[in-house]
Amino acid sequence: IVLTQSPATLSLSPGERATLSCRASQSVAANYLAWYQQTPGQAPRLLIYGASSRATGTPDRISGSGSGTDFTLTISRLEPGDFVVYYCQQYGNSISFGQGTRLEI
Amino acid sequence: EVQLLESGGALVQPGRSLRLSCAASGFTLSSQVMSWVRQAPGTGLEWVSAISRSGGDTYYADSVKGRFTIFRDNSKNTLLLQMNSLRVDDTAIYYCVCDLTRGLDAYDVWGQGTVVTVSS
User: Which end of chain A is more exposed for a tag (fewer CB within 10 A), N or C?
Assistant: First the structure.
């Protein structure tokens, strides 16, 4: 399954809301779709699994939604530490990652 | 504390071999599905390989099939990745990962990564 993330780069300001998209080339089985956040020089961190369930430590202002082939990560009230790279991943049919969305100030 | 610690990354010439290790602490590695994920410089993430809890089933990305072998040393609670016939496009940070909470493939535990550079 090929995952396409859009936009490649999203420019926003602190306090605003970010909406990141992840589109799959075919339906993701059981909505096994995860989102990760990666800070420069660090390993990725799991934010969302099962399309909409928050991982331990994920704040309430970060949420995931969607099903089938269209998924969204929403970050409300952007904070300075949110301006990094985000990846989606499907694990319903083998495993594949999107190419990432960079959130910049 | 749950932790994964990779080692073994190095600069190697194309065609040579390298073995990566991932030592687990805070949990028993053989009770989990374990995987390797890599990230080439400045690019995104690529799943590389996985091994079942029993160790009897292994899975590989097409890009490494036939060249890489994943296995475990249960006595040392360590995951390994034997990489043969290395190519320039194998250059990446290699992460050892697992889904400790759900036992699926939403990776909530990551190592810090080990750097493999393939260059002449």
Answer: C
